Amino acid sequence: MNNVSKVYGSNTALTDINVHIQPGEFVFVVGPSGAGKSTFIKLCFREVLPSSGSIFVNGCDVIKMEPKEIPFMRRQLGIIFQDYRLLPDRTVYENVAFAMEVIETPHRKIKRRVLNVLDLVGLRRRADSFPGELSGGEQQRIAIARAIVNDPLLVIADEPTGNLDPETSWDIMEIFKEINDSGTTIVMATHDKEIVDGMGKRVLAIEKGRIVRDEQHGGYGYEL
Amino acid sequence: MSFSTKEYFVRETYKSVRRNGFMSAACISTVAVSLLILGLFLLLSLNTNNLAQYLESQVQISVYMEDSCTADELKATEATLKKLPGVVKVTAISREEAKKRFEERLGDQKQLLNALGESNPFPASFDVQVDSPERIKELTPKIGELAKVETAKFGREVVEQLFSLSRIIRFGGLILVFFLAMGTLFIISNTIRLTVFARRKEVTIMKYVGATDWFIRWPFLLEGMTLGFLGAVVASFFLDSVYGAMLGRIHSTLAFLPMLPATPLLYYVTVFLLLIGVGIGALGSYISLRKFLRV
Predict the structure, then answer these.
(1) In a domain, A133, yes or no
(2) B206 to chain A: which residues are within 8 Å by CB?
(3) Residue A130 falls inside a structural domain
């Protein structure tokens, strides 16, 4: 991101953001509520466009991109939300397979790959359950499975542990670590001090729309 | 497009139509009623047109001679008429024959003619048949100018009234059909809007994992097209039975009315209705999708 600013009406969400994230990095984005973390995350997958500046994701110019190219850019991304966003009327297996179906993956590839990622998040045995029958931590693991099933280069997570208790959060982080170890870049917005401190990864702190801190092995840095 | 993808589209469409059973049924009926009315107007207009054309091809020019003309002059006129371009047949009607025909037409009230005594007010005349309707307009004034011809005329009024009736039906039908089409469009796009709304979560997720707009659109378009198609099928079915029954009635009571036969007319009308139904369905879905796809 170069000189990126985002203005919503009369509110300035981000000002003059310059960040470069290398492939394979694990980056936490921290900051108080309303500081611009979510906007930062949304800019990464072109949910919103910046008011000025330029953004490159996996080498693609997100701003100059034509609308019909957006889907193909997003196929290189895995996106995870605080509220999981699973489809309640589909089983765990179908939820994950859905991500492959809609980008027109052939049937025979889908089954093997889905079972593989369910193994990775440790939920293969729940493949036929519905999301409503699972705990929050399990649902988030399904959401992670869905995000990585198409082998993204970059995983973007917006408060993935926001709704989970500390122990479950650590289980989730273990999975993220594994994904990161296999070479996938991860950008995660979070409020979770313990996790940020415990992981010792790069930390970007955003306050009032500006980056106030960028440490290679940082801590959360805020007192709760 | 791969096989799994097509299968996915069909599966999604089927699921969605079933899930919204009541709305789908209501939508199909509305489409059916609109298309039925469209079909009826189409048949009515085609038949009036056909009737007008038929009558036009039947008309002949009646040529009335002056009372003073002699038998030789009649012969000469007949020969002249026969030589005119486009004339197929000339039937001569003498003064006596004209009187006899009139007597026959009067039937029971024949005695009215007794008042005339021995005098015969009817002129000698010729019925001239020509090869095409266009010829009539061109020949009639020409014939009127021949020597010893009193007047020449043809049944212009009836034909022209029929043509204008057919025009009115077509025009009125067009306006009605336009409003019905707008209504149908609205109903279909509303039905699809409900489906899309029920599935907006899915649509959002599809956008996030990188489904293309067309991939997201297809199941909804198919749903709209299916609704339109089914409506058209119902409409065609009713139209076929109505027209069949009507033809039966007309043949037994008004046999002289030339109606267009059911085949192949109904095939064309059915295909037309199906195309309109599917087209309106697709358009309706497309309209209601525009808003939701901007994620």
Answers:
(1) yes
(2) 98, 102
(3) yes
Chain A residues near residue B205 by CB distance under 8 angstroms: 85, 87, 98-99
- CA-based end-to-end distance of chain A: 29
**Residue A27: left if φ>0, alpha if ψ -120 to 50, beta else—which one?**
beta
| Cβ–Cβ contact B12 with A under 8 A | no
pLDDT at A38: 84
Residue A224 has pLDDT above 60, yes or no: no
| Helix, strand, or coil (residue B200) | helix
For CATH 3.30.70.3040, list the domain ranges present in chain B. 60-154
**pLDDT tens figures, A160-210:** 888 888 888 998 999 999 999 999 999 999 888 888 888 888 998 888 888
Return the closest-CA partner of residue A206 out of A183, A223, A182, A190.
Answer: A190
Domain count, chain A: 1
Give the domain extent around A116: 87-151
CATH dotted code for B60-154: 3.30.70.3040
Looking at every residue in chain B, the average pLDDT score rounds to 82
Residue B295 near chain A (CB below 8 Å): yes
Please indicate whether, in this complex, the C-beta atoms of A87 and B205 are within 8 angstroms of each other.
yes
In a domain, A111, yes or no: yes
Q: Would the CB atoms of B208 and A102 count as touching at under 8 Å?
A: no
- pLDDT tens for B189-201 read 888 888 888 778 8
Question: How far is Cα A41 from Cα B138, in angstroms, rounded to an integer?
Answer: 82
Is B215's Cβ below 8 Å from some Cβ in A? yes
**Structural domain includes residue A122:** yes
ipTM computed for the complex: 0.80
